[in-house]
Design brief:
By secondary structure, the chain is an alpha+beta fold. It has two domains: 177 residues; 169 residues, 2-Layer Sandwich (Heat Shock Protein 90), CATH 3.30.565.10. A hairpin with a 3-residue loop joins β6 and β7.
């Protein structure tokens, strides 16, 4: 289900739950207000009945006709009050209790009328009036007390229901939010992992069943982008090689010219002195031609190996030999540019698991950048060494060029970032970075403006090489 649908369902669920709680609270509030209105009416009735009982006692004491009229007025007011608030009373205490209240009031009124009509004092009627008045007062007071208790019960129950409802809504909100957020976070972590792999040049893919939501579509799109970038990177590496070949052409042409000139001179000498040459002399000249031809073949072979696209084929290689091969490719360019080369290659380095052609491409690119930074003249230093931890081999490519401003260094390996202005594509170091990261290695730069730049390549040593290093360290420790 889509994340949007999950969120909508969650919101709908909570809205319905809140509406139900609100409806229940409103019902209880209406019932409580009804009973409170009855309590107010009952208080008025109780006050009226109390005055009626007081007037009743005054009448029996003083036999005043005015007191009888007051009692009549109080009875009529009570009847009027009950009739006017009939609906509220019914909702509060029910029709049965209302009928009981009216019955007690009618009986009291009937006995009162008998007392009023009597010309002589009748103890029996007086007793009946007191009894009916007492019953009326007690019923009204008991009903009022009962309704007050019910109001308190409603308030207590409402508090409990609202309390539990609040926690129920809160817990369900937390659970649903946790479920939705975890689902979103899981997908975001997958996307973050994939984005990091792309930024590091590994171009991984998220395999397995993808979420059937918006994030699944995003992950699928990023997977497609990763595949496309991987294909484009291979094309980019090849185009960068071809660009490097264009720069190498001048040096290669110079190197090819020497053996071709030698061959031409040998052939001219052979043709000129043909009649005077013996078999040994002829064979010597042909061997020289053969040597120069093989020299040309080596040059062409190295260029073809460097330029033609190949799948990454990892194998254990001697990093020093890879450095030398890259240097041979650039030697004539270095000579033409009047660059002095220093080699400091540590002996006994463990083999590294690399694609030699790709690492050679990285080295050629770094050497070429160094040449361009030092024109004209300068010193290029190539050094190899074992890492301090022993689990990697490092190669330093240092120049005495103009250096790189500090604000540019964080962006050196970004695609299309170049310090060469219109003369650079900004792809060489980005491609080199991707190649090294694909080898599980790292590439760093240290530069000082006006003093030069050093690029350091770190390549991991296979487990076998690590074991050999550990054995050597143990042996060295034992010799000490």
């Amino acid at each position: 289900m889509k994340v949007e649908n999950n969120i909508i369902l969650s919101n709908v669920f909570h809205i319905v739950l809140i509406l139900l709680i609100g409806f229940f609270a409103l019902q209880n509030l209406n019932l409580m207000l009804t009973k409170l209105r009855f309590v107010e009416i009952a208080d008025d009735l109780n006050a009226s009945f109390l005055e009626l009982r007081i007037s009743e006692k005054n009448y029996f004491l003083y036999r005043s006709s005015e007191t009888l009229q007051e009692m009549r007025d109080q009875i009529d007011n009570s009847i009027t009050l009950i009739d006017s608030a009939q609906n509220d009373i019914v909702r509060a205490i029910g029709q049965t209790n209302l009928d009981e209240l009216r019955k007690y009031l009618r009986r009291y009124s009937a006995v009162f009328e008998e007392v009023r009509r009597s010309t002589m004092r009748d103890p029996r009627l007086e007793s009946m009036l007191r009894t009916q008045g007492k019953r009326l007062r007690e019923f009204s007071a008991a009903t009022t007390k009962l309704e007050r208790r019910r109001v308190n019960e409603i308030i207590e129950n409402s508090k409990k229901v609202l309390f539990y409802s609040f926690w129920a809504v809160l817990l369900t909100a937390v659970m649903v939010s946790h479920f939705v957020s975890q689902k979103i976070l899981r997908s975001l972590r997958l996307i973050e992992k994939l984005a990091k792999s792309i930024s590091q040049g590994t171009y991984q893919k998220i395999e397995g069943t993808l979420p059937a939501d918006e994030f699944g579509s995003v992950i699928n799109a990023v997977n497609s982008m990763s595949e496309e970038l991987k294909d484009r990177e291979e094309e980019l590496i090849q185009s960068k090689k071809l660009a490097s070949l264009g720069i190498l052409t001048a040096g290669v042409a110079h190197e090819l010219t020497n053996p071709l000139n030698n061959i031409s001179m040998i052939v001219q000498n052979y043709m000129e002195f043909y009649d005077y040459l013996n078999k040994a002399n002829s064979l010597d000249l042909m061997q020289k031609i053969q040597g120069e031809t093989e020299r040309i073949e080596d040059i062409v072979k190295n260029l073809l190996d460097f330029s033609k696209p190949k799948e990454a084929v990892l194998g254990e290689r001697d990093i020093n030999e890879t450095v030398r091969k890259a240097l041979r490719l650039m030697q004539n360019t270095l000579d033409i540019s009047n660059i002095d080369v220093k080699l400091f290659l540590q002996d006994g380095l463990p083999p590294v698991l690399i694609d030699e052609h790709q690492i050679q491409q990285v080295l050629v690119n770094l050497i070429l950048n160094a040449v361009q930074a030092m024109e004209p003249g300068g010193r290029l230093t190539l050094a190899s060494r074992r890492g301090k931890s022993g689990d990697n081999v490092k190669v330093d490519v240092s120049d005495t060029g103009k250096g790189i401003p500090p604000e540019f260094i964080p962006h050196l390996f970004d695609p299309f970032f170049s310090t060469k202005g219109v003369g650079g594509t900004g792809l060489g170091l980005s491609v080199s970075y991707g190649i090294i990261r694909n080898h599980k290695g790292n590439i760093k730069v240290d530069s000082k403006v006006g003093a030069g730049t050093t690029f350091t390549i770190e390549l991991p040593v296979p487990e076998k090489g690590k074991e050999e290093i550990a054995d050597e360290q143990l042996q060295d420790h034992g010799n000490r």
